[in-house]
Structure formats: C-alpha cells, structure tokens
TrEMBL record, chain A:
<dbReference type="GO" id="GO:0042941">
    <property type="term" value="P:D-alanine transmembrane transport"/>
</dbReference>
<dbReference type="GO" id="GO:0015188">
    <property type="term" value="F:L-isoleucine transmembrane transporter activity"/>
</dbReference>
<dbReference type="GO" id="GO:0005304">
    <property type="term" value="F:L-valine transmembrane transporter activity"/>
</dbReference>
<dbReference type="GO" id="GO:0016887">
    <property type="term" value="F:ATP hydrolysis activity"/>
</dbReference>
<dbReference type="InterPro" id="IPR051120">
    <property type="entry name" value="ABC_AA/LPS_Transport"/>
</dbReference>
<dbReference type="InterPro" id="IPR027417">
    <property type="entry name" value="P-loop_NTPase"/>
</dbReference>
<dbReference type="GO" id="GO:1903805">
    <property type="term" value="P:L-valine import across plasma membrane"/>
</dbReference>
<dbReference type="Pfam" id="PF00005">
    <property type="entry name" value="ABC_tran"/>
</dbReference>
<feature type="domain" description="ABC transporter">
    <location>
        <begin position="4"/>
        <end position="251"/>
    </location>
</feature>
Automatic annotation (TrEMBL), chain B:
<dbReference type="InterPro" id="IPR001851">
    <property type="entry name" value="ABC_transp_permease"/>
</dbReference>
<feature type="transmembrane region" description="Helical">
    <location>
        <begin position="112"/>
        <end position="128"/>
    </location>
</feature>
<feature type="transmembrane region" description="Helical">
    <location>
        <begin position="162"/>
        <end position="180"/>
    </location>
</feature>
<feature type="transmembrane region" description="Helical">
    <location>
        <begin position="250"/>
        <end position="272"/>
    </location>
</feature>
<keyword id="KW-0812">Transmembrane</keyword>
<dbReference type="GO" id="GO:0015658">
    <property type="term" value="F:branched-chain amino acid transmembrane transporter activity"/>
</dbReference>
<feature type="transmembrane region" description="Helical">
    <location>
        <begin position="210"/>
        <end position="230"/>
    </location>
</feature>
<keyword id="KW-1003">Cell membrane</keyword>
<dbReference type="GO" id="GO:0005886">
    <property type="term" value="C:plasma membrane"/>
</dbReference>
Length: 255, 342
C-alpha cells in the first residue's frame, strides 16, 4: 500500500493556480524533499496535505484513507505532523511547557477532569510530561527544558518545533524549511536529526532551499515550479535534469 | 521580595485578609465596597479565561453579566420562584445564550471578534432597555430578594452576604487555578499562542474555544446574579458597554492572562477610585494617564510586570552562579595540574 500520496492535487486562489495537478507519493521510512524556486507552491502543497487549505480538486490519501476533507486536527490525530516556516513558540513559557501540549491529542481528560482533578488527569499529565522529556531528549534539548522559549537561538527553536511535532506521535512529519535561518554547522546537526527520525521509523518530508543538504540526505526529490511538478526522482537524477536547471538558473525551457 | 509575591502566596494572603476583613472593620460601607469588588472579580475572571488565556477578547461580557442579573431578578420578582432555584436557572440561561452566541461569534477572530461582541453586548443592553413588559425598562427591577439562608445561616446582613460572595469568588479562583494548570488549560494557551499551530498538534480549536466561551459567560452570569441579589435593584445600565470597559480596566491593570491579575487589578482600581472620590469627574484625569503608562510599559499588567522582573533577576543570578561554578572548576583543575607538575 502506498503510504501517502496526492492525486491531481490542485489549488486555485482566484485566478492564480498555486498548485497544479500534482501527483506525488511519499516513500515510507525515507527522507522525501520538495524543492523549487520561491513562489513555486511548496508551502501551499504542505498546507493542502495538512488540511489548512482545502484543495480546489484532487485528493490526498494517507494509508489508503482519503484525508482531503478532514480538518487539520483530525489529520494530526491520524499521525501526520508538521512544522511551520516561522516557529511560533510561546516565549514566556519554558521549553518543556511548550512541548507538553504536543501530546494533548493522545489524551482524553476534559474540563471536568480539570476542575475535579481526577486521577485520569493526573495520569495523563504525567504521560504528557514524560513524552515531552522523551522528545526533548531525542532532539537534544533536554538540558534546556526549564529555559524560557524566548531565550532560545534560532536553531534551538527549530529543534523545539521538531520536538513539538514529535510529541504528537506522528508516523510522518512535514517540515517546512527546517534549516531556514541557521548556520552551516547547525544545518548539519539538523540534517543528522532528520536522519535520526527516519532511523526511528518516522517518515520525513521536507521543503528546503539548502541544496547541499538536500542532495546529501534526501532519498527522493520532487521539484515544483509555478505550481507544477517538473521533476521527481533520486538526487543524482534531479541534479542532472535539464528542466530543473533551467527553472533555477533561468532560460527558455518553455519557449 | 518578588519571590514572596508568587501566585500561591498572593492567593493565600488574599484569602486570609478577606476572611478577617469584616472582623477588623465595623464600617459597613467598606464591607459593601469590598463585596462589590468581589462580585466584579468573578466576572473579570470569566473575561480573563477567554481573553487572557485563549486570546479572544469578548466585549459582550457586560451583556452576559446583565443576563445573569436580570435572569435572577425576573425569576424571583416576576415568576416568584425560590431564590436558589432562580439562581441556578439564571446561570443556565446565561450559559445557554452563551452557547448560541459563541457558535456564531467564534467564527470571527481577533479585532473582528472584539467588534462583533461589542455590538452584541450593545444589543443585549438595548433588549433589556426596551423590552419593558419583561424587564421594566428604565424603571428597573425592584425588590429582588436576598439569598435564602440554609438552616441557621442567613444572608440578610452585609457581613453574611460578604462571606457568601467570598465563597463563590474562592470557588471561581479554585476552578480557574485548576483549569489553567490542566491539560485543558494548556490547550487554551496553545490556541492563544497560535491557532494554526494548535490545529497541527491535533487540538480541536473550535470545540475548545466554544467551551471557554460558555464557561466565561457562566462566570459573568454568576457575577451578575450575585450583583442582583446583593444590590437588590437592577437597571439596564448594568449591561451598558461602559461596564465591560470597567471590567477590562481591572483585568489590564492587574494583568491579563495571569491568575492573580483579576484580584489585584479589581481591588486596586476600585479602592483607588474610592480614594479619589473627592475629585469627582476629574479622577479620570489621573486614571487615564496612569492606565496609558501601564499599558505602554507593562502590557501584561502589574502581575505580568512583576513576574518579568523576577524572571530577569533569576536568570541573572543563574548566570552568575554558572560563572562561579566555571571558575571553581577551573581553579580545581589548576590545582590538579599543579599537583601533577609538583
């Protein structure tokens, strides 16, 4: 069975076609990458999969289930997590507090549990806390658990965002520019972390502009340009693809 | 000193002082003002749960306050219901209206939500003002009974009423404390922080927002019902938009999104305006600039400001400690090296 795929996925904003007829399959247990020039529709593509936009036409299928019409929170419950280009952490709270809520979707306690402080709530709070510590350890931030999120570096914020996504117990994570705005050595660290996720059995799909990193770690790459898929394949295939080179460097590919 | 001012200590101090307050003063006027302050606090807590912890600024809460008050007033004065039955029913009515309003209002966000609820609050006020056959319009409802006593406990004196209101206030604080420190509270804060992010980590924002909205209207309704039974007379003015801005002032001065903010803000502003009573209408000349300065320099109010200062100091201390530790380790190493060399 195909793990996650999109069929003829199209999104129009008025007359502007942001994503046009994209067929894409994600390979399970691998690092999949989506690249393309600015404005190619990469983030829109992510938003369609994670349920933020509903597509104009086409389908998203996850493990044989059509998730096209599901709201974001239901998609997250199925095991699809994502991060954003800009990391929205709550600066006045500690890193641990920021991450604890990530496991909320796997708990059942409600407002009555909260008011009556039932044993279920206490148990689930403990469970969330343990999960948060576990994922912080995984991303290598356990030493910062008690620090305020406002005082983190850009790279630490990215790692916290990863931790938050991992706290939802996902099977696949979509990372929108995970290495945006961090320096080269930190980029290597983040690449290692993504590899570590895959080793743990989590499928990774990312958008990135840092070609060196992509070419090194990605198993499969899709290239978008003006909302259309212009190429798909292994890194060495993409590297030598005429259309891709023209899309990036300019030229008269379509003329 | 800031360490002493954490929220648990503030609440304990507040409970102790408020318990003995009627015993140390014989001035019933002071007890009266204090009781009113407690009643407002309950409403402000409701506003805080919605605006402070979930990020949705509702300006309709004066309306829900009035619905609670009029619910109790009409059910006791016109329908001759027993006090506590009317009390419970008025809360249910407020909650039900909150649910209906919330379903519609929560489709909007941010400024639009604030403007929508502002209009809605005004409509509630107009309905109360104009629907004379039900609410007696501008004449107001007179003769609302005091709460019925339980056995030997009666609520006819100012003092006993004071303790009744204090009981409800402490209950509200307990409920707030537990909610904010629970997984539900964390979900609400996640929504305030970023609704998109909350959705991606699987939080049903629509359901959580509606829950908070209904709960916060319930607090406003409770506050209104207690007001009606305490003052015994209500007019449409209690639902006026001026009231919501008073509540908002209490909340912002104390600290929006903090647990003790409503306590401190309400007490401070109400007592300050009592002290400035001699200045009559000129007191706004003092209040206005003070409030503006507060919002500019301490957007999270007095409690938020104190917390920030405390945290900065702690961070500094930690850094100093870490520095000392490093130098200690270095000197230790140095000593070892010396031994080796020796």
């Amino acid at each position: 069975m195909i793990f996650l795929e999109t069929k003829n996925l199209t999104k129009k904003f008025g007359g502007n076609v942001a994503v046009n007829n994209v067929d894409f399959t994600v390979e399970k247990g691998k690092i999949n990458a989506i690249i393309g020039p600015n404005g190619a529709g990469k983030s829109t593509f992510f938003n369609l999969i994670s349920g933020f936009h509903s597509p104009s036409s086409g389908q998203v299928i996850f493990k044989g289930q059509d998730i096209t019409k599901l709201p974001s929170n239901k998609i997250a419950e199925l095991g699809v997590a994502r991060t954003f280009q800009t990391t929205n952490l709550f600066d006045q709270a500690t890193v641990l507090d920021n991450v604890i809520v990530g496991h909320r979707l796997r708990t059942k306690s409600n407002l009555f549990d909260a008011i009556l402080r039932t044993s279920r709530l206490k148990r689930e709070e403990e469970q969330c806390r343990e999960k948060a510590m576990e994922v912080l350890e995984f991303v290598g931030l356990e030493h910062l658990a008690g620090k305020l999120a406002g005082g983190l570096t850009q790279e630490e914020k990215k790692r916290t965002a990863f931790a938050l996504a991992l706290a939802t117990d996902p099977e696949i994570v979509f990372l929108d520019e995970p290495a945006g705005g961090v320096n080269p050595s930190e980029t290597d660290g983040l690449a290692e972390l993504m590899q570590k996720m895959v080793d743990k059995g989590i499928t990774v799909c990312l958008i990135e502009h840092k070609m060196q990193m992509i070419m090194r770690i990605a198993h499969k790459i899709m290239v978008l340009n003006y909302g259309e898929k212009i190429a798909e394949g292994r890194p060495d295939e993409i590297r030598n693809n005429e259309t891709v080179i023209k899309a990036y460097l300019g030229g008269s590919a379509s003329a | 000193m800031s360490a002493v001012l954490n929220k648990r200590n503030i609440i304990i101090l507040f409970v102790l002082v408020s318990l003995v307050f009627p015993l140390i003063t014989t001035n019933t006027y002071l007890i009266h003002v204090m009781t009113l302050a407690f009643i407002w606090m309950i409403g402000v807590y409701g506003l805080n749960l919605l605006a402070g912890y979930t990020g949705y600024l509702s300006l309709a809460h004066a309306g829900f306050f009035a619905i609670g008050a009029y619910g109790l007033g009409i059910l006791t004065v016109k329908a001759h219901m027993s006090f506590w039955l009317a009390f419970v029913l008025s809360l249910l009515i407020t909650g039900l209206l909150g649910l209906i309003v919330g379903l519609i209002a929560l489709r909007s966000k941010e400024h639009f939500f604030a403007i929508y609820t502002l209009c809605l609050g005004y409509i509630i006020y107009l309905v109360i003002d104009k629907w004379e056959s039900l609410t007696e319009g501008v004449r107001g409802l007179i003769g609302i009974p005091a709460p019925q006593g339980f056995g030997p406990i009666k609520f006819e004196t100012e003092k006993s009423h004071y303790y009744l209101v204090l009981f409800f206030l402490l209950l509200v604080i307990l409920v707030m404390y537990r909610i904010v420190h629970s997984l539900s509270g964390r979900s609400f804060i996640a929504i305030r922080n970023s609704e998109d992010l909350a959705l991606t980590i699987g939080i049903s924002t629509a359901r959580n927002k509606l829950t908070v909205f209904v709960l916060s209207t319930l607090f406003a309704g409770l506050s209104g019902a207690l007001y009606a039974s305490f003052v015994r007379f209500i007019g449409p003015d209690i639902g006026n938009t001026a009231v919501i801005f008073d509540m908002l002032t209490y909340l912002i001065v104390g600290g929006i999104g903090t647990l003790t903010g409503p306590l401190i803000g309400t007490l401070l502003v109400i007592w300050l305006s009592q002290l400035l009573q001699d200045f009559q209408q000129y007191r706004m000349l003092i209040f206005g600039p003070l409030l503006t300065l507060l919002v500019i320099f301490y957007p999270r109010g007095i409690v938020g400001g104190v917390t920030d200062i405390y945290r900065k100091r702690m961070a500094k201390k930690e850094k100093q400690l870490a520095g000392k530790k490093d130098s200690y380790i270095q000197s230790d190493l140095g000593a070892k090296n010396q031994v080796k060399e020796g």
